[in-house]
Amino acid sequence: MNQIELLEMAIKFHGHKCPAMPLGLRAGWVAMEKLGVERASNKELFCYLETGPAHAMMCFGDGVQVATGCTYGKGNIEKLNYSKIGIILIDVKNKKAVRVNINPEFHKMAIGSQFVQMRKNGIEPKDIAPEIIDPLVEKVMQASDDKLFKISNVFNFDFKPTKSTFELHECEKCGETVFATAIRIVDGKTLCLPCSEYEKAPAV
Questions:
Q1: 3-class DSSP string for 164-196
Q2: Cα separation, 160 vs 204, whole angstroms
Q3: Residues 82 and 7 in one domain
Q4: Coil, helix or strand for 63?
Q5: Is there a contact between 70 and 40 (Cβ–Cβ < 8 Å)?
Q6: Is the pLDDT of residue 186 over 60?
Q7: Which of 23, 97, 111, 177 could serve as 157's disulfide partner, Cβ 3.0–4.6 Å?
Q8: Same structural domain for residues 108 and 151?
Q9: CA 125 to CA 105: how far, in whole Å?
Q10: Same domain for 177 and 202?
Q11: Distance between CA atoms of 23 and 147, rounded to whole angstroms?
Q12: CA distance 60 to 20
């Protein structure tokens, strides 16, 4: 699948056309090229996504997933909630990584665009005219890597992936099944997180 086909697939996956999602595609591609790796079909790669909650350009993350094959379904991507536009991509087998983050000058220019001003005014991306969006997408797809990003040298990263569990339990309160990574023992009973009233899973 070539880059144009991947862009089309990514737009369908993402749900609307915007410039931030293709920026994620480009970040993923440049990181893979720097590491000399191909898109992950299993868990050959792991990605730390630096975006956060409730800010502009979060769409970047969907482009990263499509480009790298690091997806939430496979469990090989983790959001760091830094509210930055960047990634750390790790070659798990070779214990190498690279960080790619948006060039501040490009970022400031992007935030000043007509598209972003319309978004600030509450207009949804799907309601913004193609003649406004399409040139921005084209600019992202055609710009040089160094115009878009700051790209680190490859560095050592001793990543230790978490082993998946197949151990299943039944919550003694609600009767629903839950994997062992998120059970709690309360007063001698095996409970799921909602029934245990704990907010998050225990560290593994």
A1: CCCCEEECCCCCCEEEHHHCEEECCEEECHHHH
A2: 12
A3: yes
A4: helix
A5: yes
A6: yes
A7: 97
A8: yes
A9: 23
A10: yes
A11: 12
A12: 5
Do residues 47 and 100 share a domain? yes
Token pair 């931030």 is at which residue?
20
Q: Which one is predicted more confidently, 197 or 179?
A: 179
Percent of the chain with pLDDT over 70: 97
Residues 15 and 113 in one domain: yes
| Domain hosting residue 190, numbered range | 163-204
Q: Based on the structure, what is the number of domains in the chain?
A: 2
Task: Render pLDDT for 32-87 as a digit per residue (tens, 0 to 9).
Answer: 999 999 999 999 999 999 999 999 999 999 999 999 999 999 999 999 999 999 99
Q: Copy the structure tokens of residue 17.
A: 């056309």
* 167 shares a domain with 152: no
CB 56 within 8 A of CB 116: yes
How many other CB atoms are there within 10 angstroms of residue 56's CB atom? Answer: 15
What's the pTM?
A: 0.90
Q: What is the CATH number of the domain that holds 172?
A: 3.30.60
**Do 118 and 54 fall into the same domain?**
yes
What's residue 163's pLDDT? 87
